[in-house]
Amino acid sequence: MMIPEYFGSMVFDDRVMKARLSADVYRSLRKTIDDGTKLDLSVANAVAAAMKDWAVEKGATHFTHWFQPMTGITAEKHDSFITPAPDGRVILEFSGKELIKGEPDASSFPSGGLRATFEARGYTAWDPTSYAFVKGKTLCIPTAFCSYGGEALDKKTPLLRSMEALNRQALRILRLFGNEDVRRVSTSVGPEQEYFLVDAELYRRRPDLIYTGRTLFGARPPKGQELDDHYFGTIKPRVAAYMEDLNQELWKLGILAKTEHNEVAPAQHELAPIYTTTNLATDHNQLTMEIMQTVAARHGLVCLLHEKPFAGVNGSGKHNNWSMSTDTGVNLLSPGETPHENAQFLLFLCAVIQAVDDYQDLLRTAVATAGNDHRLGANEAPPAVVSIFLGDELTAVLKSIESDAPYQGAERIRMKLGVPALPRFLRDTTDRNRTSPFAFTGNKFEFRMLGSSNSIACANIMLNSAVADTLRKFADRLEGAGDLDAALHTLIQDTIRDHKRIIFNGNGYDDAWLEEAARRGLANLRTTPDCVPCLLEKKNMEMLTGLKVYTQAELESRYEITMENYCKSVSIEALTMVDMARRDILPAVEAYAARVASSASVKKAADPELMCLYERDLVRRLSGLTDRIAGRTESLERLMAELQTESDVTVTAGRIRDEVLPSMSALRAAADEAETLTASDCWPYPTYGDLLFSVR
Ligand code: ADP
Ligand code: MG
């Protein structure tokens, strides 16, 4: 079958709705999707029945409200369509009520204290802006997940609220520019997803990969990524077969999988879809991550989405390409053709600059996980310091506006807002900067701090909100102005002057930048426990509650959950290390030392004169290492036992950062050294070399 024939075949999209719903029902549903008007029950019943018939034809037997709890992954509880009929048989049914609202027993999802246990039930509510789809034998209905008190227990609800906030404020700005046609401004995202593929057989022999998604031990192989021969390299046949299969599955679900290539590290790859509305892009990215894993299983592979599966080679991130556009098809981050359009472009650009400067801490926090901490600030991913790359030319344009001085570019023009057009380069920026956490790339910003396993919801909630907040301030100021052009000019000048510290076009991997960033007063929040407390800071709380993106209680719950998640992830890693060291690594090194010692005594029995220097030295070194491994295992275990009794999550997180992680590194260092001295047939685990180079 050709791609256009099966693309979206598993999605109850507009085309299917039109074909299967009566004109009246279709019109009501469309109104709900476009304007958020409430759907009445008779319409919901008609939609549900059509959806069910369609899904059953696609092989579905069950339906589920598909939602995104604060665990960061998706959740589903399947109910079959069957209903008993009077004659003892069954019929298949699906009502409007079941479509609109579900009541999963939600007591085991993290709520960070939002939902007391006596109020165990939350409810899920249909999000008609994201199409239903069939996955396997189940009709999946994208939903929001809330507590009975109405607090959001998921990532979708605040995301939708943040999009609404941005829409409201952006429309105010557009009206100031005399634009009366635009009815909606929405944000779009294209997330580039990185991942590793390893052989499933090898994976099954690594408890660390199974329990934590990353290797906790492993000596560096002789070859890593130093030759840069993997990036954009030829795709190996097994990987190519995987990608082909993956693309097909994604296309059937209407996901616009577009670009695929090998990444920098061996066994690392990337997939990018064509961008779409943020809400959909988020649902699609969650689905993509899930399907990457299920398709891998069919190919005898495992897809690793952890941010740092292997020490010594690059980790995996996710680039969040973000822009704002109108329902009339105008990208607000695209420089225009006329002075009027350019003034508007510069205003939106400045709004993003100020937003990122004012809320750098929130953007950092939006990507904070134990896994991503290993990546941010290592010499491969953007630093934990947030800054913006604009490119030299756009920076020069802003500078000339700030100082009312002539622009020193090719055309030497005075960059007042009234100039005929911005220089051509802005429309075909060729600037490429790979080290900036937040880069302007011609008509969009690319936020690069996200970890590969992060839900993109969090980053976009903060980004949308921060920009909405700045647009609100801008609109407040401009709406009261007598001479709009003059007010606009000073607003842009003021913004550049006050926020230019966040602009940095140099090499973000350079240590000198960290010093410079500190001088500029930019935050450098290196770990999750360092940054998450900012969720509860007054300026951030006021902004997020003021825009109605979060309530105070919801923010407090996010603080709890993020910290708890950090503690739990690292604790599982620590306990896995203890287990591996004690039950596999120590016995292996010990057995090998005994083998070497007995080989020395066999040799000595044959010839008492022999010195057996090699054996004696090796046994001494191995024995020293087993002592160290055993000692460090014990320290780590003791520390974990102590933390068990600590009930304050903030204290625990701090101790994990300051004590547990260093203790884990020390244990790993001793075990990795032992690996390099132990015969390969004695080592209990597949090596880095095996894991990174065996998929062909
Ligand atoms: P690169 O690796 O050079 O960053 P890719 O082609 O891998 O580029 O990814 C770019 C991503 O940006 C794609 O997902 C693309 O659809 C997306 N994108 C392009 N234009 C926009 C836009 N206006 N808004 C949001 N995303 C966009
Ligand atoms: Mg990119």
Description:
The chain has 696 residues and is α+β, with helices and mostly antiparallel strands. Strands 9, 10, 11, 12, 13, 14, 15, 16 and 17 form a nine-stranded mixed sheet that branches. Helix content is 49%, strand content 13%. The protein has three domains: 3-153, Glutamine synthetase, N-terminal domain (Ubiquitin-like (UB roll)), CATH 3.10.20; 162-550, 2-Layer Sandwich (Creatine Kinase, Chain A, domain 2); 565-693, Four Helix Bundle (Hemerythrin (Met), subunit A) (Up-down Bundle). Helix 6 (156-176) packs parallel to helix 15 (456-479), helix 9 (237-252) packs across helix 10 and helix 20 packs antiparallel against helix 21 (613-644). Strand 3 (82-84) and strand 4 (90-92) form a beta hairpin. It contains 23 helices and 17 strands. The protein has helices at residues 3-6, 14-20, 23-35, 41-57, 96-100, 156-176, 200-204, 207-212, 237-252, 278-298, 339-358, 360-365, 370-373, 392-403, 456-479, 484-499, 511-519, 528-531, 538-546, 552-606, 613-644, 649-677, 688-693; strands spanning 62-66, 79-80, 82-84, 90-92, 101-102, 122-126, 133-135, 138-147, 185-199, 257-262, 268-273, 276-277, 301-304, 317-326, 388-389, 438-440, 445-451. Mean pLDDT is 92; it is low at 412-416. Bound molecules: adenosine-5'-diphosphate (ADP) and magnesium ion. Magnesium ion is lined by residues 192, 319, 446.
Task: Give the class from helix and strand content and strand pairing.
Answer: alpha+beta
Question: What count of structural domains?
Answer: 3
Hetero groups in this structure are: adenosine-5'-diphosphate, magnesium ion
The best one-word shape is: globular
Radius of gyration: 28 Å
Largest sheet: 9 strands, mixed
End-to-end distance: 28 Å
Overall mean pLDDT stands at 92
CATH architecture of the largest domain: 2-Layer Sandwich
Strand content: 5-15%
CATH class of the largest domain: Alpha Beta
Alpha plus pi helix count:
23
How would you name the CATH homologous superfamily of the largest domain?
Glutamine synthetase/guanido kinase, catalytic domain
Poorly predicted spans = 412-416
- Tell me the CATH topology of the largest domain: Creatine Kinase, Chain A, domain 2
- How many strands appear in the DSSP assignment? 17
What share of residues is helical? 40-55%
